[in-house]
Amino acid sequence: MRLFATVLLLLMAALFLAARHLESIDTAWGFLRAFAEAAMVGGLADWFAVTALFRRPLGLPIPHTAIIPENKDRIADTMAAFLKSNFLTPQVVARRLKGLNVAQAAGQYLANPRGGANRLSGGAASLLADVLESLDQEKLGGLVKSALRTRIERLALAPLLGNLLTAMIAEGRHMPLIESLIRRAAEAIEANEDLLRTMIHDKANTLMRWTGLDERLATGILEGLYKLLAETVVIEDHPLRRKIEEGIEALAHALVHDADMHARVEAMKREVLANPAFAAWLDGLWERGRAQLLRTVRGHGESGRDQSGRDQSGSGDPNGQIGESLAELGRALQQDGRLQVLVNRFSRRTLVGVATRYGENIVRLVSETVRRWDAQTVTDRIEGAVGRDLQFIRINGTLVGGLVGVAIHAIDRTL
Prior knowledge:
Structural class: mainly alpha
Number of strands: 0
């Protein structure tokens, strides 16, 4: 457009020369000469005006030219003040949000079948993966493991275990545990039956070994143990089962209320924490957890569909579950009027609070950013933002100036 405006100005100069030569043949050419002459004046004047906004015309130090680069800092401050007074005041923000249904708009985005919720969860997953990969892994791992160890050290383990046992007993969830322990005991006895028989044989006296009573004794003991354990599993009010339950109840009570038990549990916890094996386990836990997390978040969207195109983002994909949860939230925001009222009220209060607390900082950021730009950067960005309209000013000035010149020439001839 700048080239077009310049060519148009040169064309007016050529027309002026041609019309000036032809005017001696026929005075009617005077209208064309007047048009071209005035068009040159208008085009040059508007070229000067447009150029003076951004730079010095022909590099000459003419006063009141290069207006934008010379007043860069004042423009930055004025722009910041304009933003603050017209956009970031609490009254303006509240008035703008009054008729805006933020909850419904968010609900439409999240419930979008094209994947609004999936894009959101995918973006969060990608961001998390980038953060994990960019941080120093040794330092990050050290921080995580140190934080975990500190939390374990501060944790009152005995009352926690006691309360867990108490809750299990109250809901009857300890019975499968007791039955499992009894079955494991029976399996252990069966797996080591030969060892038990040998022990009984070694403990028996010579007479019992000569008569074979030791073998019968071992068989009787083992059969009695098997029978006892089987009855304990089958009979709900078996005395052994009740004894085990009483023992668990007593242990739960002691874990919660007994200071000596607290001290013993804390001592065992300290021994475990001081063991090098625990540190190695913690290292392995961190590495496996980090690797699994990276695989999960990096795999977002890749495992969402199988080869047949069916959605596979359900139970096995945490990102798919997050996306489905967000979509469900979106549907609730669209359908629940009371929820919309609560969310919209919270949004208005939050954004008004942001404008009140941080409006000054936001506009200062704009002002300081523009101030840091050099004059050429400011000039190029503003000139590029206004764009073609600047050259249309030159074009219009050329054409309007020409028409005015024709009008003046016509009036002059009439008079």
